[in-house]
Write a structure and sequence with these properties.
The chain contains no helices and nine strands. With about 110 residues, the protein is an all-beta fold. The model has no long low-confidence stretch (mean pLDDT about 95). InterPro entries: Cupin_2 (IPR013096), RmlC-like_jellyroll (IPR014710), RmlC_Cupin_sf (IPR011051). It comes from Thermococcus barophilus (strain DSM 11836 / MP).
């Protein structure tokens, strides 16, 4: 445990890299994870499933989130929950940063 907590801006915790997706895990516990991502324009995560619900919050930029074949367009300040076991994918409409929270069941 960090004895001296620090105030930080989430969007400053990860930087864009040309042609890449960059991630930084902030919390990684058996009960869940908190991760910040930066996606360069046209980059994304291909369709996949996860065994737990995942909350996505857009910190800046614009993204397309596809859940079970339906597209959702999100921008700064928007959030969506990707349900457990539903196929989903993400793509940067514009470069964007997101905050991902996944809570695992015990």
């Amino acid at each position: 445990m960090n004895a001296h907590p620090k105030v930080k801006k989430l969007k400053d915790m990860v930087e864009y890299q040309e042609g890449a997706v960059v991630s930084r895990t902030i919390i990684d516990k058996k009960t869940g994870t908190v991760t910040v991502f930066a996606f360069d324009k046209d980059q994304g995560l291909s369709e996949h499933t996860a065994p737990f619900d995942a909350l996505v919050y857009i910190l800046e930029g614009k993204a397309e989130v596809v859940i079970s074949g339906k597209s959702y367009y999100l921008e700064e300040g928007d959030m969506i929950v990707m349900p457990a076991n539903e196929p989903h994918a993400l793509k940067a409409v514009d470069k964007f940063k997101m905050f991902l929270v996944m809570i695992k069941e015990e």
